[in-house]
Amino acid sequence: SSISLFANLLEPGDILIDGGDEWYEPSVRRAKDVEDKKIIYMAMGISGGEEGARKGPALMPGGPKEGFDALEPIITKVAAQTDTGPCTTYIGGPGSGNYVKMVHNGIEYGDMQLIAEAALILKEVGGLSNDELSTVFAD
């Protein structure tokens, strides 16, 4: 795996950031895999899509607190900025960042399903044309 490849190049105290979007349990396992080498493994959920690429993403770091403390000055500048501050915080121990990202994805997928079903009902039952649907969803 990529993690073991990088782990062989790192030294004790180095931080390995995994920005993959996956089930949280492999993050917990990977953290344990590099623990003996004293590598700080941070699994970081990342969200934002094309807007996040331009304005900064939401960052959900999970792993040892010492890893977050070392990364905080960087990720708070990279993250999307809101009226209340950067769109990041320490989530918790190994796997927690990916767990929060998993919940986030579930909410997004639920929203997309709701929009698709509303469009279908408006089209099939309400008889709206595509142009009318466009107007409804633009509002």
The gist of it:
With 139 residues, the protein is of the alpha+beta class.
Describe the fold and architecture:
With 139 residues, this protein is α+β, with helices and mostly antiparallel strands. It has six helices and five strands. Strands 1-2-3 form a three-stranded mixed sheet, sandwiched between helices. It has a two-stranded antiparallel ribbon with strand order 4-5. It is elongated and about 65 Å long. The N and C termini lie far apart (46 Å). The model has no long low-confidence stretch (mean pLDDT 92).
Q: Layout of SSEs?
A:
Blueprint: H1 2-7, E1 15-18, H2 25-35, E2 40-47, H3 49-55, E3 58-62, H4 65-78, E4 81-82, E5 85-86, H5 96-124, H6 130-138
Parallel strand pairs: 1-2
Antiparallel strand pairs: 2-3, 4-5
Summarize the amount of helix as a percent range: 40-55%
Q: How are strands sequenced across the largest beta sheet?
A: 1-2-3
Instruction: Write the element-wise H/E pattern from the N-terminal end onward.
Output: HEHEHEHEEHH
Low-pLDDT residue spans: none
How would you describe the oligomerization state of the chains in this entry?
single chain
Basic shape:
elongated
State the secondary-structure class: alpha+beta
Could you give the distance between the termini? 46 Å
What is the average of the pLDDT values? 92
So how many helices? 6
Spatial extent as radius of gyration: 20 Å
Strand segment tally: 5
SS strand fraction: 15-25%
Major β-sheet profile: 3 strands, mixed
